[in-house]
Amino acid sequence: MRRTCLTVVLAALVVLGCKTPSDRIHTADGSVVVGGLKTIGNGVAVVGGVTVQVPSAPARVWGRNGACLLGTVTLAKGVVEVETGGGSVEMPLRSVAAIVWGNTAVTSAVFDVPARAGWMNTHIRVSRGDFITVSAGGTVSTEVGSSDPDGVVQVSATTSLVPQAVGGALIMRIGDEGEVIQTGSRWTGNAAGDGEIQLAVNAHIPGSPVSDGGYTVAVTAGPGRGTGTTAVFPAAGTRFSF
C-alpha cells in the first residue's frame, strides 16, 4: 500500500564497473567526458582538466536510497551544495549517484510490501533506461526464518516466490514478465524494460500463514538521458548505464 511521499535523504553508493572508475559527464549534444570531476558552478564543470558547459538551471541530484533533490548545484573541494527553495544542502561527492539537468521529472513514494502478498504493483510506470532507486527496511518471518530486505544469506527455498533468489529478500520486476531483480535493502540502476514497477518479498506461496510481516520500501523513478539532458556520474556513486 502506498503511504507517503519520500523524504529527501542522500546516502553513499557502491562503485560498479572498472577497476579504476572515473567521473563522467554526458552532455546534451551526446559527448562524453571522462576524468576527475573538480568543480561545478556558473554554468561549467571541470573534469579531467577539460571545461564542459552545463546548464545553470536547477538539476536533479540522485541518491542510492531512493531519494532525489532539485536545486541549483555547485561543487568545490569534493562537496556538492544544492540550493533549493527551502535552503541549502551539502553532501560529499561520493554520496551522489547522479546529477541530471533537463528532463528531471521523477516519482517518489513509499510502500508497505507484506510478506504474504506476492507481487504488488506500485503503479509507478517506467520506460527502458529510466533511473530507479530502491531503499527498504523492516523485518519479515518466512519459511527460512526471520529476515531483513537483504534476505537470509545463502538461503533459498523451493517454495519461495522466486526460488533462485535469496529467501526473504526484497525483489522487483518491471511488468508481469520482467526480469526479477533482487534489490535487497538498497538498489540503484536502470529500468530494463517498459512497464510498472512491482515489488515482493521472496517468501512462501502468496497467502501462506508461514509468512508474516512486511518491508517499508521507498522507490524513486524517472527519466535518464534524453534530448537536451546533461548528466554527471561520480565514479564513487554510479550504477547507472546507457
Give an account of the 3D structure:
With 242 residues, this protein is an all-beta fold. The protein folds into 2 domains: 23-105 and 226-233, no CATH class; 107-222, Jelly Rolls (Sandwich). 0% of the residues lie in helices and 47% in strands. It is built from no helices and 20 strands. It has strands at 23-26, 32-35, 37-41, 44-47, 50-53, 59-62, 68-76, 79-84, 87-92, 98-101, 107-114, 120-126, 131-142, 145-147, 170-174, 181-182, 186-190, 195-201, 212-222, 230-233. The strands form 4 sheets. An 8-stranded antiparallel β-sheet has the order 2-1-20-10-6-7-8-9, with no helix packed on it. Strands 11, 13, 14, 17 and 19 form a 5-stranded antiparallel β-sheet that branches. Strands 12-18-15-16 form a 4-stranded antiparallel β-sheet, with no helix packed on it. It starts with 22 loop residues before the first strand and ends in a 9-residue tail after the last strand. Residues 1-20 and 238-242 have low confidence and may be disordered.
In short:
The protein has no helices and 20 strands. By secondary structure, the protein is an all-beta fold. The relative contact order is 0.24.
